[in-house]
Structures are given as structure tokens and as C-alpha cells.
Design goal:
single chain; 79% helix
């Protein structure tokens, strides 16, 4: 009789943990998939006009920096360029939006799933 009650508690706990991990996974994955879906406009000609030119400017500036001859620059100028590239990348990330997961977060999620399942 003792074994069966322990087994029932174990099964209820296991089922609860599996359900909770599934709910957490769905809560994380659903916003990422819904942000990918974009409404389709019926007028394709207007979509080119409404695009923001800022991302193109940022990409062009990055290309200009990559094509520069950096061997002639001083240490402070190189440092300023590195900082500018970092700022451009940060701004590009905020413009593009989306959900980003760091490598550490992915590892923690995988470990939790392995432990719970």
C-alpha cells in the first residue's frame, strides 16, 4: 500500500513537471513565432516607399568602415571606430526587433528540459 501511494505521487509530480515544462516552452516559443508573421499588404508598390531608410544607412556605414584602410589610423581613431560599430549594431538590433536568446539562456533551457523530462 505504501508503494502505490508513493508511485501515484511520483506520477502526479512527473506529469505536473512535464506539463509545466511544455507550458514554459510554449510561452517562450509563441512570441518568437508570432513576431515573424507580418501582415501582407495588397499594394506591393507602396511597401518600397514606406521602408525606413535608416537600416540602409547603417549598413552602408558599416561597409564604409570595413573598406577603410585602418593601418594608417591612430589608436584613438581605431577605438572610436570600434565604438561606432558597436553603436551601429545595437541600433540595428533595436530597429529589427525580434526575440533574441543568448547561448547561456539556450543552455539553461535545454538543461531544464533534460532534467524535467
Amino acid at each position: 500500500m505504501y508503494k502505490s501511494s508513493f508511485k501515484n505521487k511520483y506520477m502526479r509530480t512527473k506529469t505536473f513537471l512535464q506539463t509545466a515544462s511544455l507550458a514554459i516552452f510554449i510561452a517562450i516559443a509563441l512570441p518568437a513565432s508570432s513576431s515573424i508573421i507580418a501582415p501582407v499588404s495588397s499594394k506591393t508598390n507602396n511597401s518600397a516607399k514606406t521602408e525606413d531608410p535608416r537600416p540602409q544607412q547603417l549598413l552602408q556605414r558599416l561597409q564604409d568602415i570595413k573598406s577603410m584602410n585602418k593601418s594608417e589610423l591612430t589608436r584613438t581613431e581605431k577605438k572610436e571606430l570600434r565604438n561606432e560599430v558597436k553603436e551601429i549594431r545595437k541600433e540595428a538590433r533595436t530597429i529589427s526587433g525580434g526575440v533574441y536568446l543568448s547561448a547561456g539562456a539556450i543552455i539553461i533551457i535545454i538543461l531544464l528540459l533534460l532534467l524535467l523530462l
